[in-house]
Every structure is written in C-alpha cells, then in structure tokens.
Amino acid sequence: MARFPVIPCLVLSVAAMFGSGAVAQRPDSPGTESSRTAPPGIESPKIESNQAIAPDANAPGTASPTAAPDPSPAPGTQATPAPAAPPDHGASPAAPPGNGASPAAPGAGDPATASSGSVPPPPAAVQSAPPPPAEAPAPPVVAAEQVAPTELTGLLGHAVVGPGGVTIGQITDLLIDRQGRVRAVVVDVGGFMGVGNRKVAVAWSALRFDSGPKGPVISVAIPPDRIKSWADYIAGRPVAILGAAGSPL
Amino acid sequence: MVSRRAAHGLDWLFFFVADLQTGFGPFIAVYLTGHQWTQAQLGLALGVGSASSMLAQIPAGLLVDAMRSKAWAAAMALSGIGASALIMAWSPAFWPVLLAQAIHGFLSCMLNPALAALTVALVSVPEVAERLGRNARFAAIGSAAGAALMGAFGTYVSTQSVFWLAAALCLPALVALWSLGNRTAVPLPPRNKVPAHHVPPREGVLAVLRDRRLLAFVVCVMLFQLANAAMLPLAGVEITKRADEDASLIIAACILVPQFIVALLSPHVGQAADRWGRRAVLIAGFCALPARALLLATVTDPLWIVPVQALDGLGGATFGVITPLVAADISGKSGRFNLRMGIFGLAIGVAATVSNTVAGQIANSLGTQTAFLALALAGLSAVVVVILLMPETRPILEPEPAPV
Fold first, then answer.
1. 3-state helix, strand, coil in chain B (%, to 5)
2. CA A170 to CA A185: how far, in whole Å?
3. What is the pTM (predicted TM-score) of this model?
4. ipTM of this predicted complex?
5. Do A16 and B248 touch (CB under 8 A)?
6. Rounded-to-integer distance, Cα A108 and Cα A111, Å
7. Which domains does chain B have, with CATH numbers?
8. Domain end: A84, A101, A126, which one?
9. Are B151 and A193 a contacting pair at CB < 8 A?
10. For burial by CB atoms within 10 Å, which of A30, B186, B193, B234 has the most?
C-alpha cells in the first residue's frame, strides 16, 4: 500500500484515470533494475512524465515504435488524432488533468498514445531527444530522469511527523501564492475515525525534510498541541499560517 | 415466538451488517487522501455517496416493498455493498470510487429497511418492539466492534485493508441471512404472507404521504437529527483542540461509549415502548438531546465530554428503536413499510446534512459554544414537537395473531 502511490503521484491527474491504479501497482513493486531498464527506450520518445512507466508493464510498448512509423494501420483510433491534433492542441502539452481521453496526444503517456505520439520521429530518434516534428509545435522535450521511488514522494496524503517522531497528520493540500511559491501545506490533524479532524495551514518553511527507509520524511518542529489548536483552515477565508519559531514565513 | 435459531440469526445479521457498514464511513477520506486524491475530488466522491444515499431512499423503499422476498432484497443489497467495497479496495481511482459510492448509497437504502422488514415479518406483532430493540443492540455492538476492528486494520495494516475487510464481512452477514431465510419460509405470522398473495392490497403512495402520523414523525425525526448530527463532530473538534496527547483516545471513547449505552438500553427501550407507549419513550429519549447540547456548551475539560456523550446513547437507543417501530405501527399490513422507512431515512439524511452545515458555520463564525446552544435549541424544539404533534402509534390490541 505504502509503495503504491509513489510513482503516479507525480501526475496527480493520473489518479483520475480509470485503470491507472491497477497498472501502476505492478511496475513499482519490482521497482528494481529490471523495471527501470525497460522504460528508457520507450519512455524517452514521449516524456511528459514518469507516468510513462506504464509501458514497461507490457511488451506492446516495445512493438509500438516499429509500428509507429506508418501511422495508418496499427494503433487504430489513437494514431489518427495524433497527427491531426498537434496544430490545435499541441500547444498545451501539459496533459490536461484527468483523462487520457483528451486528444492532446503529445502528452498522454500510456503506451498506446506514446506509440502514436512517436509517429513523427522514427524509432532511431528515440534516444536523442528533440527533433521537432514538422508541423507540431515542438513539444518541450526535457531530459528524462530516473529517480528511485525512495527519493521522491507525493505530497498529498503524506504524513507529517512531530518532534517526537509521532505522526501528527496528513497533508491534504498545498497553498501557493500568485508567484507560484508554496506558502503552506494544509495538514489534517487529530481525530479518530473521521471525527474531530481539523485542517490547519502550516508554513512550508516550518517543514523539515529527511530521508527515511521508505522515502522522504516530512517533519515539523512545532509542538503538536500548538498545531492541533491552531485556527481552522477554511477555503475561501483568510488563512492563518502557522510557522515555526524563527523560520521566515 | 421466533425460534431461537432465527433469533440468533437476526442477532448476527445485524451485528455483521453494522460491522461492515462502519468501513464505509470514516475511512474513505483517509484512504483516498492517502492515494493522492485532491480535496475537490474527495469532496465530490463523498458528495456522490451521500447524495445517492439520500436520493435513493424513497425509490429503494418502493423497490423493496415491491419485492416479494425481503430476504432476497437484503441479500442483493449485501452482495452489492460487498462488491462496492471490493471496488474501493481494488481501484482507488476516480470513476471506480464514484461508482462504488453511488452503489453503496443506493444499496444501503435498500438494506436497512429490508432488514427491518425482515424482522417485522419474522415476529408476531406484540413482539415487534422488543425484537427491534434487540436488533438495535446487536447493531450497536456490531458497529463498536467494526470501529475497533477496522481502526486496528487501518492503523496497523493499511487503510486499503479496511475495504477488503468490509467486503469479507459480507460473507458472514450473508450466512446469517441464509440461516434466517430457511426459518422465514416455515410457519409464519400473517405479515409475511401479504407479499406472497397475488392480491396485494397495497396502500397508495399518496395515502402514505397524507398520513398525519407519518408527517408528525417526520418532523420529529428531522428536528432530532438537526440537533443530533453535528454534536459529535463539533465535540470531536473541541477535543482535538483542547486535549493534547490523548485526543484520539478521548474521541474514540466518545464514539464507543454511546454504542455501548445503546447496546445496553435498546431492548429496554423496546419493552418500554410497549408498556408506556411510543410517545412517552420518544419524549424521554429526546430530552437527552437538549441536555447533552447544554452540557457540551458548558463543559470545558475534554475528559468530561465522554460522560456527556453517554447521553448520546440514550437518544440513539430511542431513535434507533422507535423509528422502525413507528414505521411498523403505522404501516400495519399495508405493504408500505419500506417506503415509510425510506421517507424517514430521507428526512434523517437531509436534517443531518443541514445540521452539520449550519452548526459548522455557526461554530466558525460565532464559536463552538454558540453552535452547541443552537443545537440545544433545536433539541428543545424536537421535544416540544413530540409533545405537541406526535400521536401514539402503538397498536391497540395486544392479542392480534389473526389476520385482519
């Protein structure tokens, strides 16, 4: 269970996709060389995200690049929208949240679309990143990176531990300002069986990050009772951000 | 007299159903948050669940009324609820969870009335009150056990395991149901025969709705929940704020203590309802509401909230026993028992939602104490309404085994 979230968390929207949970579970439990060596070949054609991990779960992924060069036959429906789509949709490669159903093919990372997405560049181009396809407005290809699941973690649902190493609560949201800086996290504290929980905004600067055996550990140096009795975070109301002593807000 | 085996079957049935239903309430938020659900998605999923469990009340009631075998209705609902627990456990993704929530909402609306109907069918009229009391007892024990069991699984195994467990608990519930089904078929008091006849003298829906006793009780139920629903959540928040280390333990006590009180009192509530009438018992039980709200408004030490919460058990026992009892009283053999249960369920759901929203807003803007005082006011008006509006519904003739 704990390992389950690690990878898909990078793209929150993946959570909204139907099967993603079931698929993602497999690749990351092996989590080792075998699963990690597989992706690069496949993954690099379309980066978008580590969501592209999905391919390693299946052989078709490898087959698809070969099938890809001729767009007409193989990938059926997905293949056709891809060449057509870029003119309008390609501009927003950030995969629209939620459903791969959206035609913004360049992004969507599942194997099928990856194959269609790689229509323009021949399989050879897979390794070297960026020759932009003729008519598509250059999807911003970045160097792909492999990161061990213990090095990264999703923030939503992540536990926050207090001074004694005791779990105080879970992060349920991030608060950013207009400049895009993360100002605070919303932590759900206290309660039992859903009764008595409170949501409290804790300053980002008050959080400390360490590495743990299962991944990053997020702690906060504020006494738990201080946090639990802090003002409620209520969306749409003025937010009282609780900071640690001495740390800038 | 019900056979002992059937009686035990009912006991276990209510125990396991309450047990497994615990898995659906409180753990969902924690579980989904742990799977990177955003607050908006979570709100939507929970909203779908509560909306379907309200909107489905009346259709589900009509459906169960129309079904010949309440045991089948209950079995269908149970299996479906098990399936939705499996979906939740298997795939915590957006659409599956939404689907599971919708299914669960609808089927719960079928299950609860169907179980009550099964009970009413199984026992003779004079025994109904006592048996409903016993049901409430085992339901309370079941939900306390469920809370403990699932709390332990959620803490020590994983939040996901809670849903596997909930699905697994469907099996013993089905077994209990089966053990009952054999009995039901055998001798049977008149009630059970009604659906079996091809001439169902089913009462018209409009006639059901026009019944003054029904309307009066709907008002009582709504005021009760208006006062009741938000009380524990508000108290829980106060405990979290004030108690430092032991907040979770105190909250756990606040949840479990009332369940034990319900388990203790329910059978007596059933007997009292026969001896002194439904009205008297309702008045006594409803009085616990304003008393509890006033005490919560004044108590400051979080530990003292626990004994105050015991009053919740008094109110809960009354409410849990009298609601199906009144439905059975005023339904008689009309074949509209489940519709009436559905109407009450809808009233409860709406009032509970309003209670939580309004009390939450009052607490945010005017303080928790004011919110408790407002709840006390609602509770007081519930008592007044029972006194003024609620007629006695106890069937007059005790010896009435013959069909009318």
1. 85, 0, 15
2. 10
3. 0.70
4. 0.75
5. no
6. 9
7. 1-184 (1.20.1250.20), 203-395 (1.20.1250.20)
8. A126
9. yes
10. B234
